[in-house]
Amino acid sequence: MSYRTIFREAVGEIPPTSIDVDRVIARQRRAGKLHRWGACGAGAAAVLAVAVTAALLLPGAAPRTTEAAGGQKITTAPGTPEDLARLDNAVFAALKREAPGMKWVHKPSPLNPGPKTDTLSDTPAWDDSDRMNTLVGYAGSGWMSVDGVEGLVMVRIERDATKHLASDPCEDLTPNSTCRESDGPNGERLVTVDSRKQEQSRDGRRHAHNHRRIHVFRPDGTVLSVSLQGYSLDGSQPLTAEEQAAVALDPAIALAPLPPGVVPPSPTPRPSLTMSAEQKRIDDAVFASLRRQAPDVMGAGGATASPVDLASVWRGSGGENNADSYWGQGRILVGKAAGLFSVQIHRQNPGLSGDMTCGKPTRTYACTAGKGPDGERHRTVTNTTRNGSKVSAERGVHVLRKDGSWLAVTLTADLPDARFALTVAQQQVVAFDPAVALAGR
After folding, report:
1. Are the CB atoms for 293 and 422 separated by under 8 Å?
2. 334: closest CA among 295, 302, 301, 304?
3. What pLDDT digit, counting tens, does each position of 124-159 carry?
4. Cα separations (Å) of 426 from 45, 247, 275, 290, 374?
5. What are 379-423's pLDDT values in tens digits?
6. Which of 20, 241, 309, 353 has the smallest C-beta neighbourhood within 10 Å, fewest atoms?
7. Which of 219, 226, 156 is nearest to 189 (CA)?
8. Residue range(s) in the chain whose domain bears CATH number 2.60.120
9. Which architecture characterizes domain 277-432 according to CATH?
10. Are 380 and 365 in contact, with CB atoms under 8 Å apart?
11. How far is the C-alpha of 234 from the C-alpha of 212, rounded, in Å?
12. Does the global pTM surpass 0.85?
């Protein structure tokens, strides 16, 4: 179950959020990193910031001027409030340059973005809560409006892309996504991922989810990402793809180079299951459960969904995998039917997903609810999307177990006729499998 679905069924609208919500858990992983990596490195970054600042600002020392990628002169020290302000202002200037008539949308509450209380202003409404983190990167987000079209814009820079991007942005695309690559004017590699999807909630209202991400891999090893999330039914965004790319290519939006000999701190993650025996145990339990239901199941590799080893396409997230949660996903192939299969577990019910009731069925929404073999509450929700002659679908089995943990097993259908790789019964058996669970405490 995606966070988008959770929010939509609970409050009827998609709230502004920093999470990148494009697909079932994978839609969450990049956004989870948005705040996680900055917070994790805050302690180490603060210590190093003192050392860097001391080195640059000793009495009698001249202000240090450095040059970033693209020849931009930078006089602020990385890890200082002045450096954060410099990056904020560079983002604001780039957005204003590409959309001179833009306004910032001030929303009174992250969970109540009602249009009656939104206010438009030239004063930036920007969240850069990962403060003092510019030694390792930068992250900020805010709502903007251009000619009445609203969108959530997110800007992120990482000093070492290899440490934070788990996979190529063009991997594991959903049927509603496209990916293209191009070259920038100064040797950059641009990757643009577009996702568009429309769904109908249980109350009959239609919801659109338009998400465009542009990643710029720079020659100096850093990566800058500019994301736009919009919810217009016609697919419009406050910035065109060209304008968004111009923001992402702006050389002024760059991290300050570190002084010679200074190594940026590595974020210290919370206790994680990544590459651990515990994560492997759950991975293996998922694979075994899948094979019991579909003995010929394989991984679906590449754009042609060719059969490959299931473990080779399975992906996890260090941020989602820890002592209290698990996330894994991969494209599976059963016969000729392929789809993105994902499993998510939380030790505690994440709140908004606790509603196991169903709404009124529609042409694009179906839901059944009941109790599992051990008395656990569950529901199965299927959302179908039609785009001309093409039909795609997503089916999620959500289980609230007696120990209070919550599990979601989700599968998409890639074929034009929206045929799933597993039957409803097979998918439910995997969700009910007691071996697919977090370790007891």
Report:
1. yes
2. 295
3. 989 876 544 788 889 898 999 999 899 999 999 988
4. 48, 46, 28, 8, 17
5. 999 988 776 666 778 899 999 998 888 999 999 986 666 689 999
6. 309
7. 219
8. 277-432
9. Sandwich (2.60)
10. no
11. 14
12. no
